[in-house]
Amino acid sequence: MWGFLMFAGAAWLAIAWAVMRLEPADIATVAGPMILFGAVCELLRTLAGTRTWWLNAGLTVIFAATGAAVLVPDESSFTTAAALTGWYLMVRGAVDVAVGIMTRGADRVWSLVVTIGVLETGLGYFSAGPFARSTDLIVVTLGALAVLRAVADLVTSLRLREVAHTTRKDVLQLPPERSEGLTGYSAGRADFEATPVRARHRAPEGASTKKDLPSVYPAGGVGHIPGDTYHEHVVRTTADLDAMLVQAGITGPRAGAKQPDQTDLPQVPDTPEIAADAESASAGRSSRDDHPGNP
Questions:
Q1: Which of 109, 117, 275, 293 has the fewest beta carbons under 10 Å from its own?
Q2: 117-122 contacts: CB < 8 A, separation 24 or more?
Q3: How many whole angstroms from its chain centre is CA 153?
Q4: What values do phi and psi take at 102, rounded to 5?
Q5: Rg of the Cα atoms in the chain
């Protein structure tokens, strides 16, 4: 999709150059196709699948109707083209400002989008007012419109390409530990879906053996509760196994738990002298333990 938007940006640049070479009599017949092309670009943004796709879809309909209204024959085609071009710019600029401010925490180019929106809104206000009453001003307005839309579409296409590349890299190039975990999870899920469904049983209180825990270990060692997902099965099984370990007296620090202070540990006998001293101290403690009355 970023390729289509990049093509649209290049097309807007070509339109901006061509519009500046127009004769004044061609303004009314060119403003309509330009606005219709803007509707096509909004349709491309809708198909890009962004969070504001519904807004782009609405703009597609509005701009298509505006472009069609410009192309309708009218005695005052010059005034109609200027007014509807201003309408297009004001709506498009206001939307750009709103979307840029909404995405300021997630998109680093939001300030550029807001700037383009402000320029479009001001240009539309100028075109729709009584100031743009000469053909030269309308030509300049159409050229500026094409340049601003070219910048906006090119920036959007490059951002989509960057995001797509980052997402693809994160998904396809997993760290080794995550890759192994994903492989194991997939294999377990395949085994889970292949096992037959069994009836639900409640484990009695105090159960500590495989026989006493039918909710985890059914007859034959296979089966799962109807309606269970694989994630729920894993969570329930892990909790039951933790309970069995606690009842069996097997405990230990969990991952990330605070370890005991290592400063009180005895010195490592890495030389013969230290080893001899350690043996002497150990022999002295043993003799005192055998004869508690001796000092």
A1: 293
A2: 117/92, 117/93, 118/93, 119/93, 119/144, 119/148, 120/89, 120/90, 120/92, 120/93, 120/96, 120/145, 120/148, 121/89, 121/90, 121/93, 121/94, 121/97, 122/93
A3: 21
A4: -65, -35
A5: 37
User: How far is it, in rounded angstroms, from Cα 103 to Cα 263?
Assistant: 52
